[in-house]
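Study this protein:
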Amino acid sequence: MTKEIREQLLSMSEKDYMEFSSALIPGVNDMLGIRLPKLRTLAKQIAKKDWEEAMEEQDIYFEEKMLRGMVISYAIKNLQQAVPYIEAFIPLVDNWSICDSVFSGMNVFQKDREFTWEWIQKYLDSGKEFEVRVALIIMMQHLLKTDESGRKMQRLGCGDKGDAVSG
């Protein structure tokens, strides 16, 4: 992230939240303690500007890595254009929080469900913990919970009489 973005992140950090979050995410020692809604808001702002330039520098903090994934999610609405950026981001995913927070909101995968299903196969089969988790989050959030038009589906057994419904 650029120096300006890093300074903005530092100004948003909360010590108490950092201590709380650090206890939930093993192995993360570079956390600032910034709440997800604030990161999402900043990511949306960056995605509207020259976002690629903003992400040229290496990340130092956990939240910078999270922000990078969120910016990709908000900036690119075409799946084929997004794939190279997503593939470059996946090796950076080294904990459940970044994986789940970034990929559960990456709605671009709903645009071409067949392509997405084929594309995640290499990650499902990789044997690497967080690559597999990325694929599972994409599958659960964007393939199993939505229909072909991208509408959210109810869970099986959630109908009035217990039958499987979609809505």
